[in-house]
Amino acid sequence: MKKWQRNAPCWCGSGKKYKMCHEAFDERILSYEKKGHIVPDRSLIKSEKDIEGIKKSAVINIAVLDEIGEKIHAGMNTQEIDDIVATTTAKMGGIPADLNYEGYPKNVCTSINDQVCHGIPSTDIILQEGDIINVDCSTILDGYFSDSSRMYMIGDVDPEWKKLVEVTKECMEIGIKNVIPWHFMGDMGHAVHQHALDHGYNVVKEIGGHGCGLEFHEDPFVSYVSKPGTEMLMVPGMVFTIEPMVNMGTDKIFIDEDNGWTVYTDDGLPSAQWEVEVLVTETGCEILSY
Ligand code: MF3
Ligand code: CO
Questions:
Q1: Residue 101 Cβ < 6 Å to ligand 1
Q2: Could you report the per-residue pLDDT of 188-237, keeping only the tens digit for each?
Q3: Distance CA 276, CA 138 (A)
Q4: pLDDT higher than 90, residue 51
Q5: What confidence tens digit (pLDDT) does each residue in 29-41 have?
Q6: Nearest-atom index, ligand 1, CA of 136
Q7: pLDDT of residue 2
Q8: pTM of the model
Q9: Mutate which of 102, 111, 118, 140 for ligand 1 pocket (most atoms within 8 A of beta carbon)
Q10: Which residue's CA is minimally distant from atom 2 of ligand 1?
Q11: With a 6 A CB cut-off, is 243 part of the ligand 1 pocket?
Q12: 112 close to 256: Cβ distance less than 8 angstroms
């Protein structure tokens, strides 16, 4: 960590002198680094201005997911979901972050049943009674990114599948409760994992959450199969997503060879995911996008 002059304006942009602002904070981080822990660098600490910007972006992201919740129904194709994302986001002045992201062809991800994530909307994919679908939406507003996803159940869903959706939501909520400043990402990830395991489910290892806000995907990678006391230290001002992918069966996955995006469970059993974007605060966390 770069040394900062004690009387100089703080690096965080507050306008306060460093000694009155983040000096003690930096020292606390340094003490963890000296013990060999992974610690965030300053670029991951959001300023007040950044947080305001992310919150405004999230207003759109949340409105889009609410809108989908009202309109989603059996018989609808997933391109129609993509259209809702495009129009609602544009109407509110935002840009869908997914579109053209590393060549991704659509505005949103719609992952049904055994699709783990990155399902690509299409007029050929029609929602059926009994389907479970994750709609993962991300928005850019004034350069700030928000990212969250929800599960929707189409009509009558098999009780076992419903339970998967509900337990996965609980996993996310347990993640939220375990975002505690000066604890570790691994404490949180482990708690999420344990809840899934308690129900006989498995959590995808290869894909996880991420820092988010000034870019779509920032450090750190957020695992939900991690161990207590490991991974990055959580400190106030960090913003990241909690988005466990929970599989009813095996955690083995494969990627669709034709489109290069869509991830499936290896055994064809269903997978569920919920995603929130949170800000670490002095006492816990604040949910920015859900
Ligand atoms: N929204 C996803 C996430 O939660 C990322 C989707 S990238 C895309 O991180 F290109 F597939 F859209
Ligand atoms: Co995400």
A1: yes
A2: 999 999 999 999 999 999 999 999 999 999 999 999 999 999 999 999 99
A3: 11
A4: yes
A5: 999 999 999 999 9
A6: 1
A7: 84
A8: 0.98
A9: 118
A10: 136
A11: yes
A12: no
